[in-house]
Amino acid sequence: MKHPETKTKQLTIIGGGITGLTCAYIAAKNGYKVRVLEASDSFGGLLNTFSIGDNRLEHYYHHFFTHDVELNWLVKELEIENKLYFKKTSMGVFRNGKIYNFNSPRDLLNFSPLTFADKGRFAATSFFLGKFANWQDYEDISCMEWLYKYAGKNTTNSLWKPLLDIKFGPYANEVPLAWMIGRLRQRMSSRKQGEEKLGYLQGSLDTLLQALLAKLKTYNVELITSSAVTKLNMEGASLKGVETKGENYSGGDFLFTIPTIYVKDFFKGVDNAIFNQLNNIQYFGAVCVILDLKKPLSKTYWLNVADSGFPFGGIIEHTNFIPSSEYNNKHIVYLSRYYSQTEKIAGQNTNEIIADMLPYLKKIYKDFDHNSINDIHVFRTNTAATVCDLNFSKKVNSCKQLINGMWFANMAHIYPDERSTNNAIRVSAEACKVMGMETDFIPYGHSLSGKIGFE
């Protein structure tokens, strides 16, 4: 697609995360005059990074899959494909006080918490969900209910239930099997003969972010930070403009890519139908405690904690994926936790979170010593993922609103898939397509995102 010389249509995008910035790029390629309004003082959203060991690192751990064709498309467009590489990784499970490798059929056979029959049921049900099940047929069935019935009580209690409990908290019993289908399809599509390779960008996601921002500037996209929308300017059933503390922006269409909780109150008492739909969507928070260590904890990249009572669900040893030499020989570990707004951790401060988590790390790694810690970084967000309960697709708001000139593309549209950079790009493509733009140049991969709300 050629770089357009004339811009006849105007688009204002609210939200400067990966969805908003990708939409801006697609719109600019389609000849739109584009501006992006970002409430914070920097672009990136969940792509944001910080400096560590003369390098950059994500606030929230990221990796890519080999089948992320939408991501690969954007990386190529930005001419940074030489920065993207894939490596074999390792996974483990902590269960009954012991670490088990969990990478291959042989590892499954050696997983002693399950009987031989349990292992067969685990393999069969996982394969069915990841390869054959149609997510649309399983929206009204909970993961727990289905897994207890078909994977078995011991398999579910030993593997699935602890993972669902720590990820979804009080909503664990309401998570639809459709979500699990999306999750397993993503993981299985990345495996060949049991081996999984994951991708990473040299220099972190900041490499992608800076390249994208630079590309947008070549299209004369107006990039405006510290511009939270405070008011919608309506004329009847049309959105004519938005206001921030310092400016009014009018004309053209308006695409909201921010979480719905930041938009819903504009409609309270104005359009109760839209308010009620947006108000139905709730969000999980997430916290990542990042340890800068003098030495590694283990040789495993990703350890799922399947024992109950732990304050984190995953231990991601980043420098077992990307060499510590990239960070001046620092060893980097993420302790990750999703949470609902009703859970204790939602109200804890940084020091309280650290004090809760570190003692549990020693329960897994007996040799862990506080003296091995160089530094600790804590990042948290209240909008890490949507709470997807039974029949969640009925809650997902439409991209096209009844209000003329107003459009939505946000995290809710990723369902039934899992949040990822690639899936955000797919949602961006679907939104731009619904808005009438040409998107045929964007390849379509394995993503299940962008299926709902774009009819």
Automatic annotation (TrEMBL):
Residues covered by the Amine oxidase domain: 18-371
Transmembrane residue ranges: none
InterPro entries, sorted: Amino_oxidase, FAD/NAD-bd_sf, Zeta_carotene_desat/Oxidored
Alphabetical list of Pfam families matching this protein: Amino_oxidase
Entries under PANTHER family matching the protein: AMINE OXIDASE, PROTOPORPHYRINOGEN OXIDASE
Entry protein name: FAD-dependent oxidoreductase
GO MF terms held by the record: oxidoreductase activity
